[in-house]
């Protein structure tokens, strides 16, 4: 899987100018992914083949949240308790189908695509951030996030025809490119 729209390096240079806002957004994103995994377990308890993996991803995302929280404190900031609305996810959700089975597939694919975008942007932040502690963290996180991308697609392929998943992934990647390229740049993962 490959992103259609590539984030320009200039985005990262601008994003690190307000690193505190980026860290807050990142902390929110990690909690949201952990919650999304738990939500999938709650909504689809009969999908026993993927529950263990969803739990594992949720635990890993909470660990990432803890690491980001430590970076927020390292910079002398406090965690913002209010989740900010994510225009990126809102834009992607506009393509989600309402049929229960199709909704399940779409949620898994969107999770993969969002992880891919996050991984791409973590890599860029790691390349331009002058604070070596932050640069190392984001470079390493970029590599860790790559594992989750395949995980969600593999989950979808347990329940759906591989070709259908691939076709739908291409459709969602096209929508993702439209959403990402149209959003104003901000110090946020998406």
Provide a descriptive summary of the structure in words:
The protein is mostly helical and 190 residues long. It contains 7 helices and no strands. Helix 3 packs antiparallel against helix 6. The longest helix has 29 residues, at 100-128. The protein is globular.
Topology readout:
Layout: H1 9-15, H2 19-43, H3 48-74, H4 87-93, H5 100-128, H6 132-159, H7 162-182
Helix pairs in contact: 1-5, 2-3, 3-6, 5-6, 5-7
Please give a handful of descriptors for the protein shown.
globular; Ferritin; single chain; mainly alpha; 190 residues
Biggest sheet details: none
CATH topology call: Ferritin
What is the average per-residue confidence, as pLDDT, rounded to a whole number?
93
Estimate the strand proportion: under 5%
